[in-house]
Amino acid sequence: MTITGIVSSPITYLNLRSHTTASSFSLPPINSLKFSSPTLQSNTITFTTTSLRNPNSRLSVSAISLSSQETGSQTSFLDRRESGVLHFVKYHGLGNDFIMVNNLDSMEPKVTPEQAVKLCDRNFGIGADGVIFAMPGWSGADYTMRIFNSDGSEPEMCGNGVRCFAKFISDLNCLNGRQSFTVHTGAGLIIPEMQHDGKVKVDMGEPVLKASDVPTKIPPNKDQSVVKTKIEVDGVNWNVTCVSMGNPHCVTFGREGDQNLVVDELNLAEIGPKFEHHKLFPARTNTEFVQVFSRSHLKMRVWERGAGATLACGTGACAVVVAAILEGRSERNCTVDLPGGPLEIEWREDDNHVYMTGPAEVVFYGSVQL
Ligand SMILES: N[C@@H](CCC[C@H](N)C(=O)O)C(=O)O
Fold first, then answer.
1. ipTM above 0.90, yes or no
2. From 158, 164, 242, 250, active-site residue
3. Which CATH number fits domain 89-203: 3.40.50.720, 1.20.1110.10, 3.10.310.10, 3.30.43.10?
């Protein structure tokens, strides 16, 4: 038997993910919650609970997941329909975490941007860097992916998110023996491929270098790109290269005169927002700070547009390798270390596409009252 649920104080819904005939249950002590006696209806147990930690919050605390030997379809509970209740699966790609929503029956996201902000809150919600919707295909693609950042804004693409998306589609048993499928995104057609080692390799398409398309107002070079160009941020000159992977990235290997950036020494929370909201980036920007270990090994920290400091950014790692190659710092195949772990990135010469390989994992299943 498996029980999973999300606390939405003062009521908690716990959904049984497998069929059971049991009529009574005992829960282990959960310190922050006070539970009433459970009632069993069909295959759903309902508890009333008060959050001792935060009795007045509208949406609060954490997920509960209890497991034993019995197995059932892991995602069957997503098919349940209850008004006002959202069933979700939380995934992460190197610690960049997402609330995945099965939206395959509609092109209308089941969560509004305002609700996404609440769900992503790490204290009063589920906690995530974004909410991702798996939707029906569009213009010939098998599926459509949309995403809201944790601030409610909608980006064009998400690299770690699309690996989690691929795992989600596979976990929903939608692959029918295929390893690869197409996803329509704001960045065009993206093609994830499930590997035998459990990782996901993604064809992320071609990088966009034309300044006005990134977009950035930094005066471009003759070929319209912004490569190793000096900009002033908060009184300091930084050398930057701008790359769009569908979403905008500003990549820096250091300040003017820096030999090699030591990224762990940066105060990201201070400098990150100054880049994100700089007047030279009309659509705001993601910013990657990069340290070069060798021509095939880089380390980056990221400040994401609409999400702040995250443990990983897939489109960011792709932009970093493109920038490193354009600046003559690396080869076309690189390992990029992020706070949450490494990604393998290749900018392939023959098709000009960027390929990203990395993990995607389930964290937990849950339901929440919207
Ligand atoms: N973490 C993502 C990028 C998510 C979108 C980004 N915050 C934006 O607004 O562009 C990734 O892995 O690529």
1. yes
2. 158
3. 3.10.310.10
